Amino acid sequence: MTEMRPDDIRFAGVKLGRHRHVCAFFDGTRGASEVLDPFIHDGFLCGHRAIHLVGADKREAHVARLRCEGIDTEDLQGSGQLEVRTTVDAYLKNGVFDQDRMVEEFSAMASGNRQGFPLSRIVCDMDWAAESQQHLQDLIQFESRINDLWDQHDDVVICVYDLTRFGGDTIVDILRTHPVVVIGGILRENPFYIPPAQFLAELHGRRSGREEQSAAAE
Hints:
By secondary structure, this protein is α/β, with parallel strands linked by helices. The chain is 44% helix and 19% strand.
């Protein structure tokens, strides 16, 4: 087993450094596996825990792809090193996206709560949020909030967004909530990132403005 310092973890061929909350944008499914697979493989070699949140309709295909890549999914799931959950189970318990509950969910996945694993590598398929405008609004706020949690841990969290599923305004906001971004298969520090306190204040101002306009129109 290869030991690796958190600052040496690589994604998309580049060391992540201190920021490990990443949004990875792909055009459909093109290029996603080429970027994600080496990161997933390295994690198993380093003894890191792998948590994959995937769409219910993609779960079997995802596990099958891992097997085709030579990963013993049955053994790793038995040992607890690999956990594959559906995004509905993770994000939409009883059909509701509850931000506070999700903060608790991710806190439970974090490195300090997983005995025997130095850290977690979490890969999240974000397609579920495209189905509801309310989910999108809540998700954007949550993506900003959760940075405060990940700043306290060494875990890596990759939020995978399909550019064909989300509108331009949403993509811009998602970009502003992640300190690191992958675009075109290239990882870079995100110059558009805004710290949570500032971004959440901006969101609050936007929503207050919309509510005032709606009230004035009635």
